[in-house]
Design goal:
By secondary structure, the chain is an alpha/beta fold. The protein has one domain: Flavin prenyltransferase-like (Rossmann fold), CATH 3.40.50.1950. Helices cover 39% and strands 14% of the residues. The chain has helices at residues 15-24, 43-50, 80-87, 94-105, 117-120, 123-134, 162-175; strands at residues 2-6, 29-33, 72-78, 109-113, 138-139. It has a 5-stranded parallel beta sheet, with helices on both faces. α3 crosses α4 (94-105) and α3 (80-87) packs across α6. The longest helix has 14 residues, at 162-175. The protein is globular.
Length: 176
């Protein structure tokens, strides 16, 4: 089971492409969004593609879990906010709770940050990328032709390298 965690930024609109590509590779996929990212995605399309509900919030403890457990996780696009909170161990959203727990469980995790140069130049972000990598997270960042964009570029942002994320999670999942 592949969990795809989606954060709130313009490239989130393309997550259906990642789900389709994952399906072609044999992954059963569940999509989880941050609360803000939910408005960036087509929930009905993702439910139809995955056969699973799209979750954005913690369930009540008395409710059954509607998603099977994850075997691997891709977080794409990952915002600076999510990267920084994740590295600090903050679990104030379901998405962050899954990411923090994933490191603790030793799950294969791939992160693909997406934000502007002003955000990604902040020292905390740079340090937190290094911290996540030191904990075994594969971070696809400024590699393979995936550039950082300038502020206020809106829809002119480079698309997320979905294939690279899937290639990386396949390697991590195979190596166990």
């Amino acid at each position: 089971m592949l969990y795809v965690i989606v954060c709130a930024c313009p490239p989130a609109r393309g997550v259906g492409e990642l789900v389709g590509l994952a399906k072609e590779r044999g992954w059963d996929t569940c999509v989880l969004t941050t609360p803000s990212a939910r408005r960036f995605v087509d929930v009905e399309e993702l439910v139809a593609l995955t056969g699973h509900p799209v979750r954005s919030e913690y369930k009540h403890p008395d409710e059954p879990d509607v998603l099977p457990p994850a075997d691997a996780v891709i977080v794409a696009p990952a915002t600076v906010n999510t990267i920084n909170k994740w590295a600090a161990g903050i679990c104030d959203t379901l998405a962050l709770g899954i990411l923090v727990e994933g490191i603790g469980l030793g799950l294969p995790i791939v992160a693909v940050p997406s934000s502007n140069r002003a955000h990604t130049s902040h020292p905390a972000f740079v340090e937190n990328i290094a911290r996540l990598r030191s904990w075994g997270v594969t971070v696809i960042w400024e590699t393979g032709g995936y550039p950082v964009h300038d502020r206020a570029t809106g829809s002119n942002i480079a698309p997320i390298p979905w294939q690279a994320a899937l290639d990386a999670i396949a390697v991590k999942a195979e190596s166990g």
